[in-house]
Design brief:
60% of the residues lie in helices and 12% in strands. It starts with a helix and ends with a helix. It contains ten helices and eleven strands. The protein is α+β, with helices and mostly antiparallel strands. β9 and β10 form a beta hairpin.
Length: 453
């Protein structure tokens, strides 16, 4: 059976538990607008009563278990989907910049330059002895080659800017990994503010790159593509390696370690989006442009070598030798110095014959790139880029809805509701009043007993 002392103790414990609960609720209300703060709760559980010599000495309360309200499964879902959202968002942004460098249907676009180049040869075929027509061919060809070089240069510059962003993202990831390792080393895993900070760091990592993580007590382990970047009190920096070809086009690869480097598979996040566009879309555009240039050079030079100019000379290339692609696309320097050397006739001694000029003009309708004409190949390149932008925009918008839903779900679990906290404080206030009355009652019983003696 209980004693008056037990009543005093239970009342005291009830008052302390209620007061502590109100302090926790007050802390929640104070941090209602703090980003990354997780709602806290004080668990109050009854203890088994103490028994001595067959007598029940009464029970007690344990209000020492302060915990965060979080849903680990929702956290994992959110971080995985959030990484994809930032990937698609990054892809759409960078691809839109790339599209701006590829004007498809205006006077400054490659399609217009190509059309004018073929038209100039057509005009020469109708008047092969016209020097003005030869000047026109040179001007159109020079403009076309300059446009290819300019667009190639601007795309390579864009890729260089993307590589700078990749370096910044890698530096940020390494910094976040170091901070997580320091938190592991600080041995404060049971500190709820430290846990909140740790979760914020992991959220930031999920924006940058695809991660897998494991929070085990006071330690957090993080991997990217199966490669550790945080393990215990250590963090492992990873680095990028760029290999450029003869035309300055880069290929980015990420590695962990220096002695025995391990390639890191980055598939999502800001870093994943940047690498996918740089290594994939940009290289594809540049390779397609090089294919177009080499097709033009090979086909035009092959015909031009068989033709005769006004002096009856033959066997000369129209475009310069050694062209690798769009980066060094230019007209042969000898032709550039004397436009009369442009061949137009397919028969020696017939200066009025425009057979070669007509054959070169007809290349616009010949399938010189696989099963495609040059214009079809160019349109396919532009359509493919447009399709990638639409795909990224659609995926970004769809993924945003998924992430918004998961964020609301996380907020409903971990977020602070002022109304709920105020109601809880009112309940705790009533519990405090009831506990204080128990103490007052025990005090009154004690006084009554003392008056009996």
């Amino acid at each position: 059976m209980g004693t008056i002392a037990t009543l005093f103790e239970l009342g005291r414990q009830g008052m302390i538990a209620s007061q502590s609960g109100m302090q926790v609720a007050g802390t929640n209300i104070t941090n209602v607008n703090t980003k990354g703060y997780s709602r806290q709760r004080l668990d109050v559980v009854p203890q088994l009563p103490q028994v001595l010599a067959g007598f029940n000495l009464g029970g007690s309360l344990n209000a020492d278990n302060l915990r965060q309200i979080r849903d680990a499964f929702t956290d994992r879902q959110f971080r995985s989907q959030n990484s994809l959202k930032f990937q698609y968002q990054t892809e759409e942004s960078v691809l839109s910049q790339l599209e701006g460098l590829m004007p498809a249907d205006n006077e400054a676009g490659l399609r217009a330059m190509l059309a004018e180049f073929w038209d100039a040869w057509d005009r020469l075929s109708n008047d092969p002895e016209n020097n003005v027509a030869r000047d026109d061919i040179f001007n159109k060809a020079d403009t076309m080659a300059t446009t290819y070089r300019r667009i190639h240069r601007e795309i390579v510059n864009l890729q260089g800017g993307i590589e700078d962003e990749i370096e910044a993202s890698v530096a940020k990831i390494n910094s976040l990994a170091q901070q997580l390792a320091k938190l592991n080393a600080a041995d404060q895993g049971d500190n709820l503010n430290v846990i909140d900070h740790r979760n914020r760091l992991i959220d930031q990592l999920s924006e940058e790159v695809n991660i897998q993580f494991n929070m085990d007590g006071k330690n957090t382990a993080v991997t990217i593509g199966g490669v550790n970047i945080v393990g215990g009190v250590e963090s492992f920096d990873f680095r990028l390696e760029r290999i450029a070809d003869d035309q300055g086009v880069g290929q980015i690869t990420l590695f962990m370690g220096k002695i025995n480097p391990i390639e890191v598979a980055v598939t999502s996040g800001i870093l994943g989006g940047l690498i996918k566009v740089s290594n994939g879309d940009i290289r594809d555009i540049l390779e397609r442009m090089d294919t177009q240039v080499l097709a033009i050079v090979d086909q035009v030079n092959a015909l031009h070598q068989t033709g005769f100019n006004l002096d009856g000379a033959t066997g000369r290339d129209f475009f310069a030798p050694g062209i690798l692609g769009a980066a060094n696309f230019e007209i042969d320097t000898v032709i550039a110095g004397d436009h009369n050397l442009i061949a137009s006739s397919d028969t020696l001694g017939e200066t009025g014959n425009g057979g070669i000029a007509r054959a070169i003009s007809a290349l616009r309708d010949v399938r010189i790139i696989g099963s495609q004409t040059l214009e079809e190949h160019y349109r396919s390149m532009i359509a493919n880029l447009g399709g990638r932008i639409q795909e990224s925009a659609f995926l970004k918008n769809s993924q945003k809805k998924v992430v918004d839903h998961l964020e609301l779900k996380r907020e409903s679990v971990s977020g602070v509701s002022i109304e709920e906290e105020i109601i809880l404080m009112m309940q705790l206030e009533q519990a405090f009043t009831a506990a204080s009355r128990m103490v007052a009652m025990a005090d009154e019983l004690t006084r009554t007993l003392l008056r009996l003696f």
